[in-house]
Amino acid sequence: MRQTVRFYLGEDLCTLRDLSPTLTLLDWLRDRGRTGTKEGCNEGDCGACTVLVVRLEDGRLNWRAVNACIQFVSMLDGAQVFTIEDLGTADAPHPVQSAMVEQHGSQCGFCTPGFIMSMAAYRKAEGASTDDQAIDDALAGNLCRCTGYAPIVRAMKQAMAAGPDRFDTQVAAISERLTALQDGESVRLEGSEGTLSIPASADDLAEILLADPEATIVAGATDVGLWVTKGMRRLKHVVPIGRVPELRALTRTADGLRIGAAVTYQDARPAIAELLPDAGEMIRRLGSTQVRNSATVCGNIANGSPIGDGPPMFIAANATLHLRRGTERRSIALEDYFIAYGKQDRQPGEFVEALTIPIPAQNAQFRAYKISKRFDQDISAVLGAFMIETDDQGRITAVRLAYGGMAATPKRASGAEAALLGQVWDENALEAARSAILEDFSPLTDMRASAWYRQTVAANLLTRFFEETTGGGQARLARTGGLAHV
Ligand SMILES: Cc1cc2nc3c(=O)[nH]c(=O)nc-3n(C[C@H](O)[C@H](O)[C@H](O)COP(=O)(O)OP(=O)(O)OC[C@H]3O[C@@H](n4cnc5c(N)ncnc54)[C@H](O)[C@@H]3O)c2cc1C
Ligand code: FES
Ligand code: FES
């Protein structure tokens, strides 16, 4: 058992013994004089605090832009962190820095270090292209108030065409350094500000939670980070799970896709998109690149939020949740995990091990629709995810309609499903389902949407689903002279 947290900051090995488990990376960096990393929102929204975190995963370096304001220093064990100060100098700038200067990508400069770190990370991203949409996605988590985005996008394109940077030439050295940190040891620190336990295996994690069921599991900290920075909560015992190899596994089995509890949305997205293309597209709109680089699929479920984007999609896809307490394991239908607002089917000391998404039937059609005030990086007002199977006569043989934002938990529209099952998937069936939806839910009015709006949207999303799965949309567009029904 190690009693230190070890990681590299730039080229320096940091070995921390006395560490608050919830000290944010942003506060720690700025206290050390690395003030190039800025504090804007302190809640993962603006990207001013973006840093580059490199980890050795399955023998390869994984480069990720993350928001330092909602990342705990204790989560960095075994990693290497680069900040704007590590990037380049006035005499030898990084290609992204040169491009930002040449393209006039900075005015007041407050957002600039964060942008530059996201841009440097994008240069290292697998399959990164100079496609406008891909660049917009990569930079959607960085906000700029004064320059405007066009020069920044131009700078990104210019930087993509530049030669190798200092990271490219240091791959071997970084791998060697990070390999030397992989000792397979669990970590335990007990200090005045709380206890930190970093398990190195699922068995360790199970033991830690049995001994202290009140301990807080931390996966990506994109929720837990805000409890600390905005909720001012003090957590007595923090258990980051990012180093547990079993939980980091993403496996395609005969049953489907098994996503371990420490797998991030960014890493899971391509595999999810292979099974459910619409879910892959939806994940592109979940948070920002920085958020998806930290946020886990299972954290999005474990938090029990009624407005998380993942749960309705995975409920519609008939996913199974795997839980473990000590040596006991159980698997439940994902929808059964959500009992009531703030109440989930998780016993003290139990943790989520993984989620399995089954392979959809050949004749299944799946769609997911997110309705939010802003397209990028916004929480849903309503999310509808639907899976339908029909036979040769067009009769519905299986149907799952799941919604987020319509009730105290993510929930299936059981009345609408009953109205559809066994019917031919036509306009009559659609109308019956639309009426049933009104009985299925009594949503709330809140700052995101009124109850009336939510009800209306929930029914209209069904119409959209009908149009898209029956090909009726084109015919209707022709009939209405281009005005869409939804
Ligand atoms: C700027 C921003 C934008 C966001 N946008 C979206 C969005 O568009 N859509 C959306 O759905 N969400 C969004 N979120 C919320 C958040 O990113 C997701 O809910 C995310 O998936 C949470 O995962 P995490 O790994 O960060 O969880 P954490 O914050 O680490 O944990 C969340 C909760 O789950 C518990 N937990 C984690 N892992 C386990 C486990 N294995 N077993 C048991 N309990 C566990 C934790 O104790 C905690 O209670 C956003 C957050 C931010 C900061
Ligand atoms: S300070 Fe805004 S994302 Fe971190
Ligand atoms: S340059 Fe001022 S906020 Fe971006």
From TrEMBL:
Record-linked PROSITE patterns: 2FE2S_FER_1, 2FE2S_FER_2, FAD_PCMH
Residue ranges occupied by any 2Fe-2S ferredoxin-type domain in the UniProt entry: 3-87
Keyword terms, alphabetized: FAD, Flavoprotein, Iron, Metal-binding, Oxidoreductase
Single GO MF descriptor: xanthine dehydrogenase activity
Entry-linked SUPFAM superfamilies: 2Fe-2S ferredoxin-like (SSF54292), CO dehydrogenase flavoprotein C-terminal domain-like (SSF55447), CO dehydrogenase ISP C-domain like (SSF47741), FAD-binding/transporter-associated domain-like (SSF56176)
Span of domain FAD-binding PCMH-type: 189-362
Signal peptide as annotated in the record: none
EC class (word): oxidoreductase
Protein name in UniProt: Xanthine dehydrogenase small subunit
